[in-house]
Protein backbone atom coordinates (compact mmCIF):
# COMPACT_ATOMS: atom_id res chain seq x y z
CA UNK A 1 0.00 0.00 0.00
CA UNK A 2 1.39 3.35 -0.97
CA UNK A 3 1.29 6.21 1.47
CA UNK A 4 0.89 9.92 0.98
CA UNK A 5 3.05 11.91 3.38
CA UNK A 6 1.98 15.47 3.84
CA UNK A 7 3.50 18.45 5.57
CA UNK A 8 0.25 19.90 6.76
CA UNK A 9 1.73 23.18 7.84
CA UNK A 10 4.48 25.31 6.42
CA UNK A 11 6.62 26.99 9.04
CA UNK A 12 7.47 30.32 7.48
CA UNK A 13 10.97 31.23 8.62
CA UNK A 14 11.54 34.68 7.17
CA UNK A 15 12.00 33.58 3.56
CA UNK A 16 11.52 29.81 3.46
CA UNK A 17 14.87 29.09 5.12
CA UNK A 18 13.53 25.90 6.69
CA UNK A 19 13.07 24.51 3.19
CA UNK A 20 16.61 25.40 2.14
CA UNK A 21 17.75 21.81 1.88
CA UNK A 22 14.52 20.71 0.23
CA UNK A 23 14.70 23.25 -2.56
CA UNK A 24 11.16 24.41 -1.94
CA UNK A 25 9.35 27.44 -0.62
CA UNK A 26 5.86 28.48 0.39
CA UNK A 27 4.22 31.64 1.60
CA UNK A 28 3.10 32.35 5.13
CA UNK A 29 -0.53 32.48 4.13
CA UNK A 30 -0.42 28.81 3.15
CA UNK A 31 0.01 27.65 6.73
CA UNK A 32 -3.63 28.14 7.70
CA UNK A 33 -6.12 27.90 4.85
CA UNK A 34 -9.23 29.91 5.66
CA UNK A 35 -12.22 27.85 6.69
CA UNK A 36 -15.49 28.52 4.93
CA UNK A 37 -17.21 29.57 8.14
CA UNK A 38 -14.31 31.48 9.69
CA UNK A 39 -15.08 34.91 11.08
CA UNK A 40 -13.02 37.90 12.10
CA UNK A 41 -15.49 38.76 14.87
CA UNK A 42 -14.87 38.33 18.60
CA UNK A 43 -11.18 37.58 18.34
CA UNK A 44 -9.57 37.40 21.80
CA UNK A 45 -6.96 39.97 22.75
CA UNK A 46 -3.47 38.50 22.54
CA UNK A 47 -0.39 40.19 24.00
CA UNK A 48 2.63 37.88 23.73
CA UNK A 49 5.42 37.80 21.11
CA UNK A 50 3.24 35.66 18.82
CA UNK A 51 0.08 37.71 19.43
CA UNK A 52 -0.47 38.63 15.78
CA UNK A 53 -0.19 34.99 14.69
CA UNK A 54 -2.55 33.79 17.40
CA UNK A 55 -5.12 36.39 16.32
CA UNK A 56 -4.75 35.58 12.63
CA UNK A 57 -4.98 31.82 13.13
CA UNK A 58 -8.01 32.29 15.36
CA UNK A 59 -9.70 34.31 12.62
CA UNK A 60 -8.78 31.84 9.90
CA UNK A 61 -10.36 28.75 11.47
CA UNK A 62 -13.88 27.91 12.55
CA UNK A 63 -12.77 24.74 14.36
CA UNK A 64 -13.97 25.14 17.94
CA UNK A 65 -11.28 22.89 19.42
CA UNK A 66 -8.58 24.96 17.73
CA UNK A 67 -10.17 28.23 18.82
CA UNK A 68 -10.36 27.06 22.43
CA UNK A 69 -6.66 26.19 22.34
CA UNK A 70 -5.61 29.41 20.61
CA UNK A 71 -7.67 31.56 22.96
CA UNK A 72 -5.29 30.58 25.80
CA UNK A 73 -2.33 32.01 23.85
CA UNK A 74 -0.37 28.86 24.60
CA UNK A 75 -0.16 25.46 22.94
CA UNK A 76 0.76 22.57 25.21
CA UNK A 77 1.64 18.99 24.31
CA UNK A 78 -1.86 18.03 25.47
CA UNK A 79 -3.36 20.67 23.17
CA UNK A 80 -1.41 19.32 20.20
CA UNK A 81 -2.50 15.79 21.03
CA UNK A 82 -6.13 16.91 21.25
CA UNK A 83 -6.16 18.77 17.94
CA UNK A 84 -4.31 15.87 16.29
CA UNK A 85 -6.93 13.42 17.55
CA UNK A 86 -9.70 15.68 16.26
CA UNK A 87 -8.06 15.82 12.83
CA UNK A 88 -7.47 12.07 12.68
CA UNK A 89 -11.07 11.37 13.70
CA UNK A 90 -12.41 13.80 11.09
CA UNK A 91 -10.40 12.14 8.35
CA UNK A 92 -11.44 8.67 9.55
CA UNK A 93 -15.07 9.69 9.24
CA UNK A 94 -14.30 10.40 5.58
CA UNK A 95 -12.62 7.00 5.14
CA UNK A 96 -9.02 8.19 5.26
CA UNK A 97 -6.56 6.76 7.78
CA UNK A 98 -4.13 9.40 9.06
CA UNK A 99 -1.10 9.05 11.30
CA UNK A 100 0.66 12.05 12.81
CA UNK A 101 4.37 11.79 12.05
CA UNK A 102 5.96 14.40 14.29
CA UNK A 103 5.36 17.37 16.56
CA UNK A 104 5.40 19.92 13.78
CA UNK A 105 2.38 19.11 11.64
CA UNK A 106 3.58 16.31 9.35
CA UNK A 107 1.14 13.48 8.76
CA UNK A 108 0.67 10.46 6.54
CA UNK A 109 -2.51 9.34 4.81
CA UNK A 110 -1.91 5.60 4.81
CA UNK A 111 -4.63 4.58 2.36
CA UNK A 112 -3.95 7.11 -0.39
CA UNK A 113 -1.04 8.04 -2.61
CA UNK A 114 -2.69 10.55 -4.93
CA UNK A 115 -2.50 14.07 -3.56
CA UNK A 116 -4.68 15.23 -6.46
CA UNK A 117 -7.55 12.90 -5.54
CA UNK A 118 -10.61 15.21 -5.33
CA UNK A 119 -12.12 13.13 -2.53
CA UNK A 120 -8.93 13.44 -0.51
CA UNK A 121 -8.77 17.14 -1.26
CA UNK A 122 -12.31 17.62 -0.01
CA UNK A 123 -11.54 15.70 3.17
CA UNK A 124 -8.36 17.69 3.67
CA UNK A 125 -10.25 20.98 3.27
CA UNK A 126 -12.93 19.89 5.72
CA UNK A 127 -10.63 18.48 8.38
CA UNK A 128 -7.33 20.39 8.44
CA UNK A 129 -8.34 23.94 9.33
CA UNK A 130 -8.06 23.52 13.09
CA UNK A 131 -5.07 21.19 12.93
CA UNK A 132 -3.14 23.58 10.71
CA UNK A 133 -4.01 26.59 12.84
CA UNK A 134 -2.55 24.97 15.94
CA UNK A 135 0.29 22.81 14.63
CA UNK A 136 1.83 25.44 12.36
CA UNK A 137 1.98 28.07 15.08
CA UNK A 138 3.23 25.55 17.63
CA UNK A 139 6.10 24.60 15.34
CA UNK A 140 7.14 28.22 14.97
CA UNK A 141 6.95 28.81 18.73
CA UNK A 142 9.04 25.72 19.51
CA UNK A 143 11.73 26.97 17.15
CA UNK A 144 11.74 30.62 18.24
CA UNK A 145 9.72 31.08 21.47
CA UNK A 146 10.35 34.82 21.86
CA UNK A 147 9.92 35.53 18.17
CA UNK A 148 13.40 36.99 17.85
CA UNK A 149 14.45 38.53 14.55
CA UNK A 150 14.90 35.71 12.06
CA UNK A 151 17.81 37.21 10.14
CA UNK A 152 19.68 37.93 13.34
CA UNK A 153 19.36 34.49 14.90
CA UNK A 154 20.12 32.57 11.70
CA UNK A 155 23.14 34.77 10.91
CA UNK A 156 24.47 34.28 14.44
CA UNK A 157 24.06 30.51 14.11
CA UNK A 158 25.91 30.44 10.79
CA UNK A 159 28.78 32.34 12.41
CA UNK A 160 28.82 29.99 15.39
CA UNK A 161 29.03 26.94 13.13
CA UNK A 162 31.90 28.46 11.15
CA UNK A 163 30.00 28.66 7.87
CA UNK A 164 30.52 32.41 7.50
CA UNK A 165 33.02 34.99 8.73
CA UNK A 166 32.65 36.34 12.29
CA UNK A 167 31.53 39.72 10.95
CA UNK A 168 28.56 38.21 9.10
CA UNK A 169 25.41 40.12 10.07
CA UNK A 170 21.65 39.91 9.75
CA UNK A 171 21.90 42.34 6.85
CA UNK A 172 24.40 40.06 5.10
CA UNK A 173 22.11 37.11 5.60
CA UNK A 174 19.10 38.98 4.19
CA UNK A 175 21.15 39.96 1.15
CA UNK A 176 22.39 36.42 0.51
CA UNK A 177 18.92 35.01 1.00
CA UNK A 178 17.48 37.11 -1.79
CA UNK A 179 19.37 35.28 -4.52
CA UNK A 180 20.70 32.25 -2.60
CA UNK A 181 24.27 33.48 -2.83
CA UNK A 182 25.39 31.96 0.46
CA UNK A 183 29.12 31.25 0.92
CA UNK A 184 28.41 27.56 1.52
CA UNK A 185 26.80 24.70 -0.39
CA UNK A 186 23.04 24.24 -0.61
CA UNK A 187 23.45 20.75 0.82
CA UNK A 188 25.26 21.92 3.95
CA UNK A 189 23.86 20.02 6.93
CA UNK A 190 25.19 22.64 9.34
CA UNK A 191 23.33 25.33 7.45
CA UNK A 192 20.20 23.20 7.56
CA UNK A 193 20.57 22.98 11.32
CA UNK A 194 20.74 26.76 11.55
CA UNK A 195 17.65 27.19 9.40
CA UNK A 196 15.61 24.64 11.32
CA UNK A 197 16.93 25.32 14.83
CA UNK A 198 18.96 28.55 14.91
CA UNK A 199 18.77 28.88 18.70
CA UNK A 200 19.86 25.25 19.15
CA UNK A 201 16.86 24.43 21.27
CA UNK A 202 16.67 20.98 19.65
CA UNK A 203 12.88 21.31 19.91
CA UNK A 204 12.60 17.65 20.82
CA UNK A 205 13.14 16.73 17.20
CA UNK A 206 14.08 13.10 16.77
Strand order of the largest sheet: 1-3-2
Mean pLDDT: 83
Distance between the termini: 26 Å
Order of helices and strands: EHHHEEHHHH
- The class by helix and strand makeup works out as mainly alpha
Biggest beta sheet summary: 3 strands, antiparallel
Give the number of DSSP strands.
Answer: 3
What portion of residues is helical?
40-55%
Count, helices: 7
What is the overall silhouette? globular
Radius of gyration: 18 Å
Whole-number total of structural domains: 2
Secondary-structure blueprint:
Layout lengths: L3 E4 L43 H10 L3 H8 L5 H17 L4 E3 L5 E4 L8 H26 L6 H11 L9 H10 L9 H8 L10
Q: Mind explaining what this structure looks like?
A:
The protein has 206 residues and is mostly helical. The protein has 2 domains: 4-143, no CATH class; 150-196, no CATH class. 44% of the residues lie in helices and 5% in strands. It is built from 7 helices and 3 strands. It has helices at residues 51-60, 64-71, 77-93, 118-143, 150-160, 170-179, 189-196; strands at 4-7, 98-100, 106-109. Strands 1-3-2 form a 3-stranded antiparallel β-sheet, covered by helices on one side. Helix 1 (51-60) runs antiparallel to helix 4 (118-143) and helix 2 runs parallel beside helix 4 (118-143). The radius of gyration is 18 Å and the shape is globular. The two termini are 26 Å apart. The model is unreliable at 7-33 (pLDDT under 50).
Amino acid sequence: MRKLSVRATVVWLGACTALFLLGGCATASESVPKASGASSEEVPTFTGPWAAEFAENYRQTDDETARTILAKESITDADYSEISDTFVACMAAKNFTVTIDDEYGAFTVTNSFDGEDPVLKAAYTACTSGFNAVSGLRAQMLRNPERLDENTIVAACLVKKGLVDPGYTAKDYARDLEDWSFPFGHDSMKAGECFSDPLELNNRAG
